[in-house]
Amino acid sequence: MLKGLALTPPVIGRISIGKVVEKEGRRLPEKDDEFTVTSQVQNREGWITHPIDETLRTSAGAKLRSIPVRLLFDDADLSLRANYTLFDRGTGRPMCVGNGETCKRSTSSGVQTLPCPSPEGCELAKGGHCKPYGRLNVRIGDDDELGTFVFRTTGYNSIRTLSARLSYFHAVSGGLLSTLPLELRLRGKSTTQSHRAPIYYVDLTVRAGMTLADAIGNARTESQSRQSSGFDQGALDEAARQGFAAGAFEESEEEAASVVEEFFPEDFDNGQAGGSDRLDAKPGLAEKLNRRVASSQLTGVVASGGK
Q1: Dihedral sign, CA of 273, 25, 201, 129?
Q2: If both were cysteines, with which of 134, 181, 225, 260 could 159 make a disulfide (CB 3.0 to 4.6 Å apart)?
Q3: At 234, is the secondary structure helix, strand, or coil?
Q4: Distance between CA 245 and CA 250 in Å, rounded?
Q5: Segment holding 214, helix H or strand E
Q6: What's the pLDDT tens digit per position in 232-251?
Q7: DSSP 3-state percent helix, strand, coil across the chain (nearest 5)
């Protein structure tokens, strides 16, 4: 096994509620009012639709606002990972990932574990560059029982709702999240911040037409069937836990670049992406972070009289 490489759940497709479009020569994210299930392949127009997207729609051209899913793990934190994340806009690399208590930060001397005061109280997060960032892995269909589709989001509403639902479902089912018949649903709301225009977020419920009691009974039956066949869910969860812990950051530089383009577009599309080697390039975020860390360390030395 390669050291320093996070082993994440196998991904065979993406779930999104928006897309990146080209406007006046710039690639910008555009929100949508429906789900789109895509493959992991892009062309000039964007991500190529996955064949399962068409089968999920009730009719040609119908809005896709619910997706029947199952989870791969019983541990909610393995299915949904949410962190405060700071990306380098120039390279797409994750620079700092924290949970509000501790963080892993890439510095000139390597990855360090440091206190995380959350974006509101962090000197490095000034300017709004550090955001909550969530990744939810779900199964769609039964063609690949270990393959997942990933939904990525920086939306507070989606992260908060999904976190609460997973916690509640885990509690009421006795921890049988992997066998619960669930459904992703797109919901809308208006707020004063959105100027009363609708904003959309993702919710997780039991399947349409089922009660919570029905879903729990189904989960128990399925769990017993798996156990009798020799399926070891506990071992699968532990393997995933160790896989995540094997690397400092979950996203690779290759994956992170597309994440930055979709969710952090302010600086990614201004000609600096991948262009830090230009003679006229401005200092990248990594360089700025290292300067701030060095400055804070120097301030601490001066304050202590150089001791």
Answers
A1: positive
A2: 134
A3: helix
A4: 9
A5: helix 212-229
A6: 999 999 999 999 998 888 98
A7: 35, 30, 35
